[in-house]
Specification:
This protein is mainly beta. The chain has a domain at 14-57 and 77-134: Sandwich (Immunoglobulin-like), CATH 2.60.40. Helices cover 12% and strands 40% of the residues. It has a 5-stranded mixed sheet with strand order 2-10-9-5-6, with no helix packed on it. It is found in: Membrane.
């Protein structure tokens, strides 16, 4: 069965670069990338926001999983801190989050949210990464082992 209809290629809006989980030592500098491309050729109004969540990733992932797709996130913003916002007109947006001299208290989930205001209905897209921060000087257990051997 052959249909003489033109093929329609639907290009969906998508992340072209997403942040990845990372483990660093205290004092290190890191960058988390986030880039997004809207579908179509019309001019878009895109906004990118970086948010920080203190709670562990698995709890957050569960909360996000039960939220309704397309609606505002059910994760309350009282648990989150907005770090930055960038807005552009066009099809592409990117914003790298840079953290210098990372501290233990910076550990948590970082979320890149992209809001697409081009249609009547605002579309929101999200990508997340977990940042783990290790102590710069973890004390070695060598001394404890030597003390035991002398007893």
């Amino acid at each position: 069965l052959m249909l003489n209809a033109p093929l329609l290629f639907i290009v969906t809006a998508t992340f072209t670069e997403v942040p990845k989980d990372v483990t660093v030592r205290e004092g290190d500098d890191i960058e988390m990338p986030c880039a997004f491309r809207a579908s179509g050729s019309t001019s878009y109004s895109l906004e990118i926001q970086w948010w920080y969540f203190k709670e562990p990733a698995r709890e957050l992932a569960h909360e996000l999983a039960i939220s309704v797709p397309g609606s505002r996130s059910k994760v309350t913003n009282k648990d989150a801190t907005k770090i930055s916002t960038v807005r552009v007109q066009g099809n592409d947006i990117s914003h790298r989050l840079r953290l210098s001299g990372v501290r233990r208290q910076d550990e948590g989930v970082y979320e890149c949210r992209v809001a697409d205001y081009s249609d009547d209905e605002t579309q929101e897209h999200k990508a997340q990464a977990l940042l783990r921060v290790l102590s710069r000087f973890a004390p070695p257990d060598v001394q404890a082992a030597e003390a035991v051997s002398h007893i």
